[in-house]
């Protein structure tokens, strides 16, 4: 007799799903070369079941590599995606064929949470104009003009550590706020309670909640929910969207109008907004002015591009400019706690090259290769945006005999590339030496892959790199971080754990941050930095 218990029905269901999935793939492959290989896909869930931990898909994508290779086709819930697991394929497609691979996947949710975010924009004229506006200020040649601003922001951060060493997350968060607002608006935020920082942070909170895992999944499946009136019972998402758009408006207008007002009285220093408005030479051009306003506010928001699938959206919703800098600094601090020998070596180099009577400056950078190696290893060890930001194709393509459909989401798995055992042996270990030659000079590997690919590569990468260098070096010159002690004076072990938000960052961990400059006082820090604490 045939056993028709629950096990039978479950087995029948699984067989049917596998059959349907096979038919779909077969149908997809009928009229064109085959799609890249990939894990089995089932209705509704797609290939999610093949991911060990869907909240960290970069690890699962990396694990797929051994079975399916460097280019993989999968379905994440209802979204087809192509995953790239190697630098070679990323360069071939996202750089050498960038005319095809520079779009972004679009989502209905953006309209309600981030309609003007450059990083989310479809590839086209509007994106080009925004990109040009931002590029003018963040191109490599402009970076040295920001050295003073970056140094000042890093030094302000040191006062935070001296006065309140336990609140390290706030100091690392304030650092990018401070330098980005200076570069974009010639605006120096107050260390505590700044109203512009508040607007921007509130916007980001709402944005992350709005395009996070569950919200996106529900809204994409039932888009009519977005059309409900805000007063409708239970429509919390819609109310959040209304507040998000209000914050978006304030975030664009408040600092922008402030710059315009100061321009009219000649009280504004060169900055992204003033420089672009000056380019108009007094000729009215509302479209351009609006683009400057939007592009400026979205520099702060940075790279919030990801709506490829709810699962990946939640986890790789990539780094906002400030978030990714903040995350990278937290990862650096974690690395220093866990690897005191690296910290000691970096500090010995700073002491030898810079001495104790002044703080490191950009001119010292060539003489401090180990510090650059620490920076590169921090970017590699735990990339703040492990899946970068997703690209999309504008036309179909054929690569190595595989068919890449038009409009498909393309994910460059940065994690797989930065943990490629052939290039970085023992990839989970934190070893700055891998970026140094035998003679102590730096290798040519700058870890640029962390900042993405082709025409959509991070527009702020040169400034980000310089900002991270001065922040880390200034910190190590003046402070050390150690494991915290328990009530018996024993070190509390640190087990790295990571949270997933706009960018990946370590969860707060107990540590002791102690000054290492002589007679650690505000007066002495004032002498070293030239900053007066009352003015901060
Ligand atoms: C550690 C710091 C940073 C990291 C790791 C980072 C990483 C990234 C990545 C992976 C992308 C996506 C690239 C791609 O699609 O291939 C991106 C895009 C972007 N980044 Fe950054 N970023 C950082 C800092 C900054 C800063 C300081 C700015 C300020 C200007 C910035 C502005 C942007 C913008 C506007 C985009 C979107 C570009 C576009 O879509 O055309 N980022 N970033």
Automatic annotation (TrEMBL):
Chain positions recorded as heme binding sites: 458
Cofactor names: heme
Entry keyword set: Heme, Iron, Membrane, Metal-binding, Monooxygenase, Oxidoreductase, Transmembrane, Transmembrane helix
CDD domains: CYP64-like
Pathway(s) it belongs to: Secondary metabolite biosynthesis
Claim: Iron is one of the keywords in the record: yes
One example GO MF annotation: monooxygenase activity
Family: Belongs to the cytochrome P450 family.
Annotated protein name in UniProt: Cytochrome P450
Origin species: Rhizopogon vinicolor AM-OR11-026
